[in-house]
Amino acid sequence: MMEAPFAVSANEQGHLTVDGMDVVSLAERFGTPLYVLSERAIRERCRSYRAAMRAVDPQGEVVYAGKALLTTAIARILDEEGLHLDVVSGGELYTALAAGFPAERIHFNGNAKTQAEIELAINAGIGRFIVDNFGEIELIETVAAAAGKRVTALIRVTPGIEAHTHEFIQTGVTDSKFGFNYEGGQAFAAAERILRSRHIVLAGLQCHLGSQILAREPFERAAEVMIQLADEIRSRLGYTVGELDLGGGLGVRYLAGDNPPSVAELLAGMGAAVRSACAARGLPVPRLIVEPGRSIVAEAGLILYRVSAVKDIPGVRRYVAVDGGMADNIRPALYGARYTIINASRLGEANAAPVTVAGRCCESGDIVARDVALPESHVGDILAVLTAGAYTFSMASNYNRLPRPAMVLVGDGCADLIVERQSYQDVIAQDRIPVRLLARAEVAVCAGGELLPVRRDESVGCSARGQLHQKLK
What we know:
- The chain is of the alpha/beta class.
- The chain has helices at 23-30, 39-56, 72-80, 90-98, 115-124, 134-147, 186-195, 217-237, 263-281, 294-297, 331-335, 424-427, 435-438, 462-472, and strands at 8-10, 16-18, 21-22, 34-38, 61-65, 84-87, 106-108, 128-131, 151-158, 180-181, 200-206, 243-245, 287-290, 301-313, 317-322, 341-343, 355-358, 367-372, 382-385, 406-411, 414-419, 443-447, 450-454.
- Strands 4, 14, 15, 16, 17, 18, 19, 20 and 21 form a nine-stranded mixed beta sheet that branches.
- Helix 7 (186-195) packs across helix 8 (217-237).
- Residues 165-172 and 454-461 have low confidence and may be disordered.
């Protein structure tokens, strides 16, 4: 079995346990599909980043990338562990604020912030904007001026570095929707513009190369490029960059052959690269910032599925179908992500011939994993997908009108529900039927759990329809 950062073992029943909790029992108690997180693993990973940062830069910051996984409970853990938080939408920002996360430790990233989101962020008093384009600079300036406030910003730079990961999760190359181009001079022009601003204070530079990066070298090359830009800004504009955010992207162990550098190795390499580049140019060393997301929560989580069917195609393959799939984890279908999967009900049994684990969505591409070795699996067995804490829940959908799964946090001998499972009523909660459609025949409408008869009325006008529409809500 693949090593995991939480305590994974088999109990006397041959069931998988996570930090001492029987996951088959968790599946019975909370249902499936089910996201399970180890609180201890998340906290230990947060602490490893903070310790590594202290060794490199005692004034440095570890900023968790909320897009990997963010709930109000996760935000509470991050706050308690002293991390900052990177958000990329109003929804993520609202989640953090609702959890009581300190606004001054929030960084707002993303390439298409709306005016409403910027207003929410400025009114909340967030710590940093990561500005992405010239239009955003003007919008932040306008909103901040109207609010009578000054805000602090980092400039997102695309340094033109390929990170040797899937093209869908590369973000540091020159042709990217993110950030200001370094090679074409846009990043320098952005610095020039912000330094003229009356309502935006420039704190420094930021870049993000991509995700699931399994080597230190791309980060160290990015540090060299960013310090080169900082030198140009100082020599031409007289401004000394005070903060350098090298983003996140450290890979994790999805498969036994994955071998990412340790957190300590990664940050030590970044710090050395920054110091060397600054020394070569006579620059003060800026405060270092990193933005881990996946590498904090991925290996702390798993997804539990129940086997719903086993189907043989003679001479071709055996399919083991489960009650989840691309609606709760789009990554395999989106860009061929691969996972380690085990039969959590039969850990003591030998593996049989390889099978393909199929998801339940009505798509041929909904395959959880191909050609995986599992014990002989039967209907009702619980399969566990390891290293599934990142970009699963956060990318989940209601495709095929499937309710989104529950999430459980395991810690201190307890299993606590931190996200409730959606019901069918939750799935249709935001649906509305226009009265003009209801008026064509006698139908029954579900509103507030009651069935309401609505009869044909050809004379209903737009105003009356609107009033009835509100009543049906």
